[in-house]
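Regression report. Comparing outputs from two consecutive submissions.

Submission 1:
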Amino acid sequence: MEPIRTSFGPRLLKPSPGMALAMAVVYTLGLGMVDSLLPPRMSFTLFYVFGVAYAGWCAGRTSAVVVALFSALVIGWAEWFNTHSDPHPAVLAWNTVSRLAILGGVGWLTAETSRLARNLTRLVEEQTAQYKAEASRHKEARERLAFALDSARMVTWEYDPAADQITYSPNAVAVARGDNLEPYSSTAALLEQIHPEDRDRLAQAIQRVAVRDEPFEQEYRLRLQDGNYYWILAKGRRVCDSAGRMTRLVGISIDNTDRKRAELAVQIQRDVAVQLSLASDLQGALEALLALAVRLDGVDCGGVYLVSPTDGSLRLAASRGLSQEFVAAVSHFPADSQRSRLVRAGKPVYGLQREVLDGGNQPLEAEGIGGFATLPLIHEQQLLGCLNLANHTQHPIPPDMRAVMETMAAQASGAIARIRAAQELKENEARLRTIINGAPLVLFAVDANEVITFAEGQALDDLAAASGAYVGRQIQEVFPNSPAVIRCIRRALTGETFSEILKIRDLWFEVSHVPRRNPDGRVVGCVGVATNVTERQRLQRHVLEISAREQARIGQEIHDGLCQQLVGLAFDVNSLEAALSARQHPLAPQAARISVCLDQAITETRRIARGLFPVSLETEGLALALEGLARLTSSRFAIPCRFATSGPVEVPSARLAINLYRIVQEAVTNAVKHSGARSIAIQLHGAPDEFEITIEDDGRGMPFDSRRRPDAMGLHIMQYRAGLIGARLRIGPRQQGGTVVSCCLPRELTLDSTGCEPKAEAARSPEAHPNPAGG
């Protein structure tokens, strides 16, 4: 029965609305059948109320009204069936309506009662759950509060100013370090254990709170039973009588040592960072580091060792809080000593010196060193030295200070590396400045806006400019009359690296330009070196003038001496040939061949003389001299050589014309001898700002490294002559195959060029001597 009750009971009391309506209808129908079969005097009307009430309780008001209506009809039918007579319609209607009203009212009341009961149950359950959750939270809060109170390093106290008595009420763990605060039963006894720096301030605060209505809150250092000072935070409130006089001061004292240590450590780390970042002297930086380090808890002395770059030993660079005898004894540790090996291990070492170090530490024992820490100073995986911190007590350095010490060591490593790098940079800068100020050159830098950002060097004196006079100025402002300088700067700003010889005022400079790029590869400026080569240019020009005079002299001697002798010999050979031919001598043909060879020798000698001393340069100009060179090349080597001009091509200086002619002559010779060219083209172009001569051939081209070969004398001479007159010489491949030699001479250099050219007054043109043999 128990299983049936436990399973059927909840289903009967808490069915679904549809099930409850069906059960009420079945109950009413069954009750009506029973009522119709029993005698008329046995009335079951009241029993219909249970069905209506059940439907209203379980299914709601609508179901209750439905069951009430059904019950009224069933009752009426049972009454009619049981009496076997026709009741009066009015009576039947009245009874049915009355029953419907009564049963409907009962059903409605039951449904409302059920709804209110369910709402009340839900509210009770919600409130109960809320009360249970709040009770659980309160319990957890009480447990946490109890744990915090039990774990806190604090005591509660009460001070009676009339009796000058302090009463303590410690909690379960009132003395976290095993210290007993109860002996301090009076302010006088308490003040004796206060740090001297905090004693007067605490006494004045106690006196003020006795006469003023203000909160009592003080931080002070208290010496406890282990002999060390600990930070205490004391807070209290006045308790006054009805007259407003303080009768008691109650409060708590909290061990605030950890927080004060953390604050001090943060402050020291900040001060170390500031001091080291501002330091420029290594010795001063190390002394400032030690002055801050000895303020740490558990530290009262220390030293900094640096690794010697020569033998790897440790040498004491700075110390603090140590006796002179001890400093002298530990100022140096060889590379193979135990202390050096500890440092080279690269890990911090903490502990008592008698536990970590082996025997033979009499200086440490005599000094009374107990706890110590050795922290390697490492920067970018390079050992710089070590930071040693210690105390004169037999207590190890507190563990919570180790992270602070290691941070200080890292800061010191970076500062030492930075200061050393700065000192080395200053030394290098001083050496560089000595070189700059001792050599005839100028170092300069220009940004992308063509503004000079740096200009130093002894050669500035040659330009009558002080050091830094050009800095911050535009190059157009500094060199308004030197367009070649501006052109080269702009050329370097396009990303090209090159060297040129430039004339600035009355001086010659060999200038090397190098573009300066940012990490993205974009050109942001250029740097360069300008060397004063005025004297070298003068000497080189003098050498070339001597060479030109010697060439002219040799050409004249060949023309006036050798050529005349060959001409005389040619006359004799012609006479001999005529005589032998008249006599029909068998040697006549041989004499004719000798005559022809002499004519060819005379022609070749005149060509050599003309090449050594091109008189047409002075008489007819560069263009006609180059045209003659082209004709001579075509006839001598049977290679078509064309010459063309465009624009104004007059060169006012014979010195410039001779050097340009020699450059073209050497380029043509190279094309004939080495390139296997089938044709050569020479073009002289005159522009408003420059002259340009190009020599092109369609030969094999020039090997990539030919200009670097030591035997490429012709190319070196071409470069030499171009640099001497300030021209730009470029040698490169031709697009259709072959080689292009280009020589550009700024026109401003032709306007102010001076110099004496070799002029042989007795020189005569080779064309003035006709070939007597018809050559």
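Submission 2:
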Amino acid sequence: MPQAHKWVYQFREGSAKMRDLLGGKGAGAAEMTRAGMPVPPGFTITTEACRAYYKSGGKFPKGLWEQVLPALKILERNAHKKLGDPKDPLLVSVRSGAKFSMPGMMDTVLNLGLNEDTTKGLAALTRDERFALDARRRFVQMFGKTVKGIDGDKFEHALQEAKKKAGVKTDPELKPEHLRSLVARFLSIYKEETGKEFPSDPVEQLREAIDAVFKSWNTERAKTYRRMERIPDDLGTAVNVQMMVFGNMGGTSGTGVAFTRNPITGARELYGDYLANAQGEDVVAGVRDTEPISALKRHMPKVYAQFERYARQLEKHYKDVQDLEFTIERGNLYMLQTRSAKRTGEAAVNIAVDMVKERLITKKDAVARVEPRQLEQLGAASGGAVFDADTAVEWGKQGKAVILVRVETNPNDVHGMVEAKGILTQTGGTASHAALVARGMGRPCVVGASAIDVDVRQRRFSANGTTIKEGDEITIDGTTGDVYVGNVPTIEARSLNQHPAASSILRWADELRRLEVWANADYPRDAAKARENGAQGVGLCRTEHMFMEQERLPIVQAMIMASTTQEREKQLARLLPIQRGDFEGIFKEMAGLPVIIRLIDPPLHEFLPSLEELIRETTHLKDTGENPTLLAEREKVLARVEELHEANPMLGLRGVRLSILYPEITRMQVRAIIEAACDLRKRKIDARPEIMIPLAGTVAELRTVHAELKPVAEAVQKEMGVKVPYKFGTMIEIPRAALTAGEIAQEAEFFSFGTNDLTQTTFGFSRDDAERAFIVRYLEQKILPRNPFETIDEAGVGRLMAIAVKEGRKTRKDLEVGICGEHGGDPDSIHLCHKLGLNYVSCSPFRVPVARLAAAQAAIGDSTKDK
């Protein structure tokens, strides 16, 4: 007989190394069981089973249920209880658990196994009818909402009504008689919504709950979260079936979530939330105000000492900060979960450096562990207050900054949390859903702000006599927990060089990386910021940005309006000293480092008023008959704009084509560049210009322009009696240039990939139109795995880059190759650039630290780092 596929593992059969198969939760429970910790017995249904479930159209794969039943028997043996036994009933939790942590995104069912008989048995056994009825109330509510998709508000409303009727404020104050009628109400809601009685057979309950957890892998909120965290959709979730232990059995019971270090600051202290006489979902949902974990030390010092010992043991074992869930049932501690903790950027760098000092991890481990985006996180955010996730999305898509304000968040709010700049909640603690998810996203979050009173229906909140209505600006500080009225200017993040832990991480990263990190800088101030952040050169200086400045634009416009070369050169002579000054400032800041200057690239009409604006203006002047002089002048401009007008300007007269038609413009630019370099070298300041000819698609274009410009560079050096180390190169942004790179390298001494345009021309997408009109839909429908304007499309654009590098270096061995598109600051694209053998990546000055870290991680080969 062939051996059946193994879909189910007892906790004692697994280990931390089986995370792909057992998911994070299952692997954690298995590892704690192996370490001899008090873990309630249970078993895990594998992620493989989930994938097979989807392949078979939402049906259990062959043999799965046949393996669940004997696994349940083993669980019953270990628990010394039976599912459905009216005298001593076993109750279980059914929880999801993917490879990567997705807090609150998938479904959980607790207290499974309760019916009329087992509830009575539980009441007799515990001598606590209130506890048994409350457990059943919670089970019906959770099963109805999770398994059957009943609107949770229906149960919540009935619960609030019951408390009102009983004259109490909190759930624990409800007495058995109140809970009996509440359970009956919940069962009738279930029947009204489903048309069926609530299932009384615990085995049927278990089957339906497992099915619901598999289904929850593909809910909208789970898909949104995966898209944001870049978690693949095809991993699937494991399902963990585990004996229930109860934190709501009186004063010696409780539940909590704690971190082995502070996930906000990184301080080495137990940090988290504890709730006496409560179940786990009360902490995570944030519906009750929690106490700090230190409160457990006061209530139960022995249990606290035991927990502290396990926390230290687990951190040492995993060599990382752990996020632990635990329950205390009548003085007995049970460990439910351990996983790598979500943390802020501040905490991430501090913890990594501290662990190196403690000799827990190596410098290489520390560099691999900090996510590049964590270096960008700021602690504060400002925006208009909004009170539901859909409004946050709607306003965010319109470009408005928003702060999502809720009583508490739940997993269905995740799409709004993605769009918001920050999150503010009235209830909940440091381990509530809002705090966990926000930390993972790098959003500032203030939770449990009990001083505020949120009224979602009226769309406002109030605090200390001040009322904030929807749309009013507020600022929240995720580090201090302060909330301010208005848009309080947040202080620019201090330079990472002044942050001891971050500068250590970056120093270690620099020792490990091969790729250099340069910066895109159009002005001396950009270059100064780039140097401050550790840039090793300027990979792109866009000269047209200098032309757009107010005092220069009239000269540029006069040059474009000129009808003869002679007239144009007259205006260019006025621009020459201005351009020379620009380049001098950048060369001075980057003394001794290379500076790549791109010659004029955009179409000339971009420097003139728009066609629509001119038509409107001339029509108005004609209609009113006022100011004939101005009319004549505007008509002249209109005629020139119409002459320059193109159907598709991004593929029209720009880049190298402008240099060929109007060589006098780029002659002036080259003169300005070399004169600036000569001036500085005379003053013993090392200037190293590299002149980039953009948009070349053929070697002939490059040869033509090179022949026009090289004599200018040589003449200036001769005139000034100074030698300048300079290069001529090109930007590879046309597929043909990549495919004929061997020829192009005959003329170009360096290549720089302009991946924004290379992506547009490879896909045939106009970026602005694509991102506005259809990219989002493409991502949702998995037509594209990633937005190609954010991360390089490896199969298409990446392949063209690989051809260009290989062919270019075949012609010119020492060819310098870099990238200067926006992808230069994207960690995944940086990994590709490392793999392709580029010399450098160039990104915005502010993203230089991110690129330094990502380049080091590429060198380490740490592309499979846990999310």
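Expected: both submissions complete independently.
Actual: both completed, but the second showed a warning that disappeared on reload.
Relevant detail on submission 2: The first helix runs from residue 19 to 34.
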